[in-house]
Write a structure and sequence with these properties.
- This protein is mainly α and about 220 residues long.
- The protein has one domain.
- It is built from 10 helices and no strands.
- The longest helix has 26 residues.
- The radius of gyration is 21 Å and the shape is elongated.
């Protein structure tokens, strides 16, 4: 314990640690490992929403065709979780330190990711119900908003990120992080007019992110 204290105080004197606030960047490994595990588990659980039709062999083809909304919902939910993992991965390339607030913001993201398999099951069971569509949109918007808050907190004044990162690069990640939440929040309003239109509007989030990534900073 005494040696650990000396080691900590030595790092603090070298300016690598501020007591009670930040720790060296290499300690991010535990946060990233936990995050990757939750994302992987959520991606795996998604498939549990797909079930083998209990019909006669001659009716199997028709039953599979009737289940296409479930397959589409599974693929879309998988893609969205992949989008969030990719965004998380990219911003953590530049986050070098963490503090208590950052850890809890990351835990909030994991809560939202972990509940997505349940949200997908609700959505695929009631694809034409406005409540199911709104629930799906809310969880996606909340996840994107939380990740955006995490990045803005970490990058404010270069508090926890690479000091060499330029202001345009910081703004780029903040901007791309707002696209999906805005689209999903907008779809909630659209759902009061048309549930189908609200669902189709979700694809705008993926398309818009692709356009910005093409002409933005990687």
């Amino acid at each position: 314990m005494f040696e650990d204290r000396l080691s900590y105080e030595g790092r603090e004197k070298r300016g690598r640690v501020r007591r009670g606030a930040e720790v060296p960047g290499e300690d991010l490994g535990r946060i990233i490992s936990l995050t990757d595990g939750v994302f992987a588990f959520a991606l795996t659980l998604l498939v549990l929403g797909l079930t083998v039709p209990a019909v006669a062999s001659g009716q199997l083809a028709g039953a599979l065709r009737s289940d296409w909304p479930k397959f589409l919902g599974y693929v879309f939910a998988f893609v969205m979780i992949a989008v969030w993992w990719t965004y998380h991965h990219r911003i953590f390339r530049y986050i070098e330190r963490y503090d208590t607030v950052l850890m809890w913001l990351n835990m909030a993201v994991l809560i939202e990711i972990a509940v997505m398999p349940f949200v997908l099951q609700v959505y695929t069971a009631y694809p034409q119900a406005q409540a199911a569509v709104v629930l799906f949109a809310v969880i996606e918007a909340a996840t994107g908003a939380t990740l955006n808050v995490l990045w803005r907190y970490a990058s404010a004044g270069h508090r926890l990120i690479d000091p060499k990162l330029s202001p345009p690069e910081i703004r780029y990640f903040a901007t791309t992080g707002l696209i999906t939440p805005v689209v999903f929040l907008g779809s909630i309003a659209v759902s009061f007019v048309s549930v189908d239109a609200a669902q189709y509007s979700w694809f705008l989030a993926i398309a818009a992110r692709g356009v910005i990534r093409r002409y933005g900073v990687d």
